[in-house]
Amino acid sequence: QSALTQPASVSGSPGQSITISCTGTSSDVGGYNYVSWYQQYPGKAPKVMIYDVSNRPSGVSNRFSGSKSGNTASLTISGLQAEDEADYFCSSYTSTSTRVFGGGTKLTVL
Amino acid sequence: QVLLQESGPGLVKPSETLSLTCTVSGVSITSYYWSWIRQSPGNELEWIGYIFYSGTINYNPSLKSRVTILLDTSKNQLSLRLNSVTAADTAVYYCAREYRRWFDPWGQGIQVTVSS
After folding, report:
1. Nearest-CA residue of chain A relative to B58?
2. How many other CB atoms are there within 10 angstroms of residue A67's CB atom?
């Protein structure tokens, strides 16, 4: 199975909105509404920010939102804040019941 | 509160077997799926496999020939064995609960280096 494709880096200024894409195939992202997004700070474990494409766990800011179109899922962060600077990873369920991650995107808040 | 803690050797010699344990507290391991995930020095996450107490197991096809995941319900632990390791297996290894189709929570991770 191939890793999902994410941009290596994105950046934005405080208050702006950014979107991170996650592209897979019809056997993973496109075939199921089981895409999740994780935020990771250096030296820390990942933390789920979005599950099932667009749902936010309790305690996650409503500035984080998710969507999907075809084989591409997206994470949008609005009202960018300095604390959002981190790495972001997407993950998807696959047609063989395995799981696959994206390569990760480094978000820089300018 | 569900907590996971990985433990095991931080250094493994090439061609030997990597063995890690994940101790779970706050919930019975019979209630959920549990996964092992690793993060390479290049920062990429790779799903290794999952296990459910019923015996359901699934492994990443790229690692399937070398990996074994087990549950010890008496200790509320899961374990990972990866044999014939090479430098490419150097990574931070995480255990995580799979809550429906997402991972939450994760353990803090354990660095494993493959080197002679």
Report:
1. A98
2. 14
Q: Helix, strand, coil % (nearest 5) of chain A? A: 5, 50, 45
Compute the distance between CA of residue A86 and CA of residue B5 in angstroms, rounded to an integer: 23
Are B28 and B85 in contact, with CB atoms under 8 Å apart?
no
For A72-109, how does the pLDDT look when each residue is reduced to its tens digit (9 = 90+)? 999 999 999 999 999 999 999 999 999 999 999 999 99
Q: Does B58 touch chain A (CB under 8 A)?
A: yes
Q: Give the distance from residue B17's alpha carbon to the nearest chain A alpha carbon, in angstroms.
A: 23
The answer to whether the Cβ–Cβ distance between B103 and A38 falls below 8 Å is yes
Total residues belonging to chain B: 116
- Report the DSSP pairing between strands B11-12 and B110-114: parallel
Q: Tokens 């993950």 identify what position?
A: A91
A27 has a chain B CB within 8 A of its CB: no
